[in-house]
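2024-03-11 09:14:02 DEBUG pipeline.ingest accepted 1 chain
2024-03-11 09:14:02 DEBUG pipeline.ingest length=444
2024-03-11 09:14:03 DEBUG pipeline.predict start
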Amino acid sequence: MEIYYKNGTIISDQGDDGIFEYDGRIKKYRALPYKYALVTRKYKNIIDHVFPDKKINVKSGIELRPYQKKSLELWEKNDYSGTVVLPTAAGKTILGIYAITMLQVPTLVIAPTIELIIQWREKLRDAFNVEIGQIGGGEKDIQDITVSTYDSAYLMAERLGNRFKFIIADEVHHMASESFIQIAKIYASPYRLGLTATYERTDSMQEVLETYMGGKVFELGYEELNDYISNYKIVRIPIDLSEEDEREYNKNREIFLSYLRRRNIKINGNMDFEKFIMTSWNPEGKEALMAWRKSREIAFNAERKVDYVRYILSKHPNEKTIIFSEDTNTAYTLSKEFFVPALTYMTSGKERKKYLDMFKTGDITVLATSRILDEGVDVPDASVAIIMSGSGSTRQFRQRLGRILRPSEGKESYLYELISAGTTEYGTSKRRRKGVPIGINDSA
């Protein structure tokens, strides 16, 4: 059998076996590239033109922790395929770097944001002392080890589908989307490693990763990593609304609930809420949606929460602190109130890097952010997190907690949740904390 790669498919001169499909136009057999590993395992005498016979020579001085070693052993037993699920701050990047030294083949590291691929590039360069390529962020430099955003890997899939034998997908839950799953299908890479802190998705699309990335091979939670993360404490603080905020909240909440009762609509999850939005294109529905947004805004941004943020900052002077909010406007409000930098989607990449570098060196000790630091960005020294507002997503909560868990000698970390009393924020907090240990000596 002779196989080669062309325009996002594997072509073969034979293959009537359920893996390939016959294409009468070219009188050859075709298969999606992700089946390359299956083909090479099934057939022994293959003339393989899909990948050049190329090895790279990289070494690192990394010493793995026992759980990291175990995870890679299970990944290796699964034909160097599958996803490792570890909490933020547990060393997923280290796993990826070590896996490259195990395989010694051209490797593509994919991550969802420019900040993350820049971090990967710097850590790979430090580990191996070789040139690391980058696709995305205005660059298109392809090397034997290259980092790329998901967007760029998707756009260049047909061209690069047989360039890299090994794919590392950081925050692999992003791969399980309708568009990005094409990366897993069109790249022929026989070796695949997914990394994430939160494998499950609200739409259950992670199930497609079983087929295209090898499924979940290893998982640990925070409760099993006490020896490798800082001691932490989660404190949930109820904040009373002002009389004016309480009146406005109750008025808008009643408008929303009355509409649901009249329409016999029950909301028990994201899908139900999406159905509500789809049926709200009428004057009453629009009023109900606006009332829901207003009540949510009041709960998230209660004036007295700002006063409590001030108290927490005074309680932890000079400690590196991140204040998280759900929306951009709140981040800028906090920035002005406390004279601290705000990091949002509107902040340029250059400015983000500047503030994070200053935070790392201690030139600034407090950052206000919306959702831009929720995923993946390395903030190694933070010890205090304040959640001014947030969604019910367990993924978001775990990521925010992970920002303060990187260990250092004598470090004690605190995560404060500010919850507007008598509002739906209590239910939101309960949902996002599901499965997350509340921390050592917790008083929430």
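2024-03-11 09:14:41 DEBUG pipeline.report The longest helix spans residues 243-263.
2024-03-11 09:14:41 DEBUG pipeline.predict end
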